[in-house]
Specification:
The chain is an alpha/beta fold and 419 residues long. Helices cover 32% and strands 26% of the residues.
Amino acid sequence: MDKLVIEGGKPLYGEVSISGAKNAALPLLAATMLCPGQHILRNVPDLRDTRTIIKLLESFGSECRRIARGVWQIELTDITNFEAAYDLVKTMRASVLVLGPLLARFGVARVSLPGGCAIGARPIDFHLQALQKMGAELILREGYVEAKCHGRLSGADICFDIPSVTGTENILMAAALARGVTVIKNAAREPEIGNLIDMLRAMGADIKGRGTDILSVNGVAELQPADTKIIPDRIETGTYLIAVGAAGGEIIIKDCNPAHLPALLEKMRAAGLVIEEGKNTLKVCGSRPLNSIDIKTMPYPGFPTDLQAQVMALMTLTDGLSVINETIFENRFMHVAELRRMGANIKVDGRSAIVKGCGGLTGARVMATDLRASASLVVAGLAARGVTEISRIYHLERGYDNLAGKLTALGAVIRQVKE
Ligand code: UD1
């Protein structure tokens, strides 16, 4: 297993280019199963999670070929297996995204239930209830959901209790091939869903309401393959932006979409970062002192839960008090104990964390617990005095394309070494 060793206190300068969004690549890769023929996906990030879903697609019989850097040609002519096995699903919950396409096109699927994960219970009951409403018969057996439908799924009226990102994506894909109209109310509005809708429309799907919380899908009998580009990763973008706030310096973030980060940009300006927005670039200047800010995570366009841990690391560097409220996941403060090892003063009370800025952190040996918690330790390590060693970095490899390489190019002193 590898670890990251960071010598902190070096400001960041230069340019960094953002990769395709993990959370868009996963549903778009799953959507290739909806019809025969060759799909092209561009700007696919090279991540552990994208490799996992490609392995999953191959286990169903998809032919997946990387034809250039970031460009994949994918085709599922004949299905050879209907089961998404536990070994793959347990490493990546988003594997559940194959359920909607399998049921819609083939009328049968067996998908392992994802179980708990480091950041909370994260059930998939919304996905299952919606598919049942669309006519799927579901049985939960031996840790798997076994699903089938006779003929096509039927359109239905669905209202999510909470806007679920992968829930919305799964039902959009299922509804694209259903008989009749499906309406999804309280749908999630994340930009990655817009990217999926654009791909499904290019495939011939009839979807209204893009960008709103009411989506209406008029199912069609067949779809065609499409050529689609994955949007830039807004969480990777946000992580570099916060990193320059923590380490100081001035960077240009290229190939990003600032319009996808409204809440973060407002909060980071309030924290004292100087940010200039271009259409696909951000120029960010970080210096001390930093102001403390409060954040509350919310579904898009609110503050993303996937950037909560990184902002918490930044807030330890102020001289004030910051209240961080996590409303999406019940157990997403795993990074707190590790940040405390670096000198942070953080109290957790239920879903709130109160960060008393300590002006600076010191390097320590810490452990990555989940993807975004690991990113917060990198942010902390870049700002800390001395050396920080982060173990279990396979979590980071799930979601950050070449993190150590990109940070090194910005002047960070960071090495990936075998433990
Ligand atoms: C997606 C993102 C993840 C991000 C999260 C919230 C992907 C691959 N992952 O995860 O990075 O942190 O959105 O922005 O896109 N819920 C239920 N029942 C369900 C589904 C969800 O109770 O069937 C709850 C969850 O426990 C959570 C909330 O709804 O409290 C939102 O979760 P959801 O949007 O579904 O998260 P994911 O799609 O798993």
